[in-house]
Write a structure and sequence with these properties.
Blueprint: H1 2-12, H2 14-25, E1 46-47, H3 57-62, H4 73-90, E2 97-101, H5 104-115, E3 121-126, H6 129-141, E4 144-149, H7 158-168, E5 172-176, E6 178-179, E7 184-185, H8 191-197, E8 201-205, E9 224-228, E10 239-244, H9 256-272, H10 274-294, E11 311-315, H11 322-333, E12 335-336, E13 338-339, E14 348-352, H12 360-376
Parallel strand pairs: 1-12, 3-4, 3-5, 5-8, 8-9
Antiparallel strand pairs: 2-10, 6-7, 9-10, 11-14, 13-14
Length: 382
Amino acid sequence: MLWALTTASVALGPRVAGWVRTMASHRLLVAPPEALRKPLSIPSRLLLGPGPSNLPPRVLAAGGLQMVGHMHKEMFQIMDEIKEGIQYVFQTRSPLTLAVSGSGHCALEAALFNLLEPGDPFLVGVNGVWGQRAADIGERIGARVHLMIKDPGGHYTLQEVEEALARHKPALLFLTQGESSTGVLQPLEGYGELCHRHRCLLLVDAVASLGAVPIYMDLQGIDVLYSGSQKVLNAPPGTSLISFSDKAKYHHTTPIISLYSLRESLALLAEQGLENSWRQHQEATEHLHRRLRALGLQFFVKDPAVRLPTVTAVAVPAGYDWRDIVHYVMDHFSIEITGGLGPSAGKVLRIGLLGCNATRENVDRVTEALQEALQRCPRNKL
């Protein structure tokens, strides 16, 4: 083979001759991986953690479509349809509404880097891991970060926010509507109006809540709203949704295949209707709560009015190691639930009901799995 290449190189010129000499003087140090000679195999699992969620057949099919160029007219049409879908689920008429190539965390960074300058006062509600992330990014930008700290499981009242706005006079307030690390649902009614009275913009994280609970970006005075693709929308991770109001005035090679899937996810939600989706999640969560109470489990968020319907956090029962329960449910039932995150780490089990996974059947499956896990997993009675 090498002789043939050497002979051919004479006719093909000096560039090919040099390439052939390089091949002759170097050997491959890394062989083709044996693992890649095997067909890809993915287990079938029910994902009832805080995300990602299972993909509906229509979204899976969209991910198998052929590529088009990111500047082709068909891609522009898809992006326009995605924009209209985001405007619907956000309930906004803002023209500055788009999908971002990256996770919800990427959308948070896009928002903060476009809203804050070094030295700007930035007020952050920290009642879980996502508020802390926002504060960390604000500090890296050089903003003067002021924290409103709540114990995990707590939420912010209008009075608490107004006092902090008057004290710190921030340019921007960050709140998480659905704090998935603790299972808290933050009320939003009146907070936008309050911020604007104090000449402050309102940034809201709706990654874990969008599509499951009501949110009205324009009517609630939210200046920047963002969410993710992999929660209630049941799309692959890697794209996020964001919208800026006129007060909060923000190009790259887009993730084309992921946008096909996102377009179909938004289409499915539009066909179902937001109100029906909200109702579906509320009913499935109420059924989950009844089943969990029957097992004797205690809710981490005590006030039912501020429990996040997409992610339910229950206290780890006394004497159990949360890892044993999570592993048992996965190993014996192929169902994913998770432990805590950030301030709730080691304290809770988290069960997610996201989009198409929010059904009574799935609630029954996971609670039956939990019941068996509590019977079989070791328990320290001391």
